[in-house]
Here is the input.
Amino acid sequence: MVEKQKSDEFENLLDYCRLWYGIVSTDDNREQAIYYGRLSGFFTNEDTLTPMGEQVAKLINDGLAA
Here is the structure.
């Protein structure tokens, strides 16, 4: 259950990065969104959420992200 929640948080944050940076949502552009998510401090090099990424993902899940 926790792993599913982490996966959902990762995907929601990835979608947020796509939206924020104007990246078209396709499989080909997934790496580009991850790249910008890393630059923003949301993702590690191992493609997991950083502590800041976890906080932003929680805000997104709660509908509070701008």
Summary: The chain has three helices and no strands.
